[in-house]
Design brief:
With 227 residues, the chain is mainly alpha-helical. The chain has nine helices and two strands; from the N terminus they run ααββααααααα. It starts with a helix and ends in a 6-residue tail after the last helix.
């Protein structure tokens, strides 16, 4: 088994184990309860708070889009001048990660049976809670159209871990990995705090982002490992 295969299946196994633990421990509901006040039926963050919405929702998106446009502009310039093929590959990898990670997450969300926290009985909604693993229960996949798993907003932040794979210096690689994970987690926590996503949604998005990155790296850069 190649390094890429070990990495891919190891990450996939870790994700499944995490989802199984969350499913049987009820961690999603327990963690979500920290952000909900049942007395006044209100979430920790009001979805109508425009200031927080700009800081934690719109601004990160704008910055990530600007970052992507900058990468595309640099790649086009290098292609026109036919310069630095290796850098062109790295730029193509980074751009592909920014495109495919949110796209794959959005596609999975489209077919998701998981309802958002604010929709379920425990938090004042009108439907029963189902977890990602409830897909194996009879009728759940077709009977529910929650479209809330995994976390779409956080995918943009987690896509930045792609920088880890192309930077050479170990310190910069660590900062890229830490920065991408931190931004994705903050974006995910914002959604959790207003009842839009569960902890498992964000964890799954982080894992999917890594899996997409190592796959793109192998096929675009042509290597099994970024180390």
């Amino acid at each position: 088994m190649s390094y890429y295969q070990k990495n891919f299946f190891g990450c996939l196994l870790a994700l499944v184990i995490a989802l199984i633990f969350i499913h049987y421990s009820g961690l999603d509901i327990k963690f979500q309860s920290l952000f909900y006040n049942p007395g006044i039926k209100q979430w920790f963050i009001d979805k109508n708070n425009l200031t927080l919405k700009f800081i934690f929702y719109r601004l990160p998106k704008y910055l990530i889009i600007a970052y992507g446009i900058t990468l595309i502009a640099i790649l086009v310039k290098l292609k026109i001048k036919k310069q630095n093929i290796e850098l062109q590959k790295k730029l193509l990898f980074l751009i592909s990660a920014l495109i495919f990670i949110p796209l794959i997450v959005a596609s999975l969300k489209h077919y998701s049976h998981v309802h958002c926290p604010h929709n379920i009985y425990e938090f004042g909604g009108g439907v029963m809670h189902v977890s990602p693993l409830d897909i194996f229960k009879e009728g759940v996949f077709f009977a529910n159209t929650g479209k809330c798993f995994p976390a779409g907003h956080a995918s943009g932040g987690f896509a930045l871990i792609s920088l880890y794979f192309v930077l050479a210096h170990s310190r910069l690689k660590f900062l890229a990995l830490f920065g991408g994970l931190s931004l994705g987690s903050i974006m995910g926590l914002y959604q959790i705090s207003k009842g839009v996503h569960y902890l498992s949604d964000t964890i799954a998005t982080a894992a999917i982002s890594y899996l997409v990155c190592i796959t793109l790296y192998k096929f675009i850069i042509g290597k099994d490992s970024a180390n």
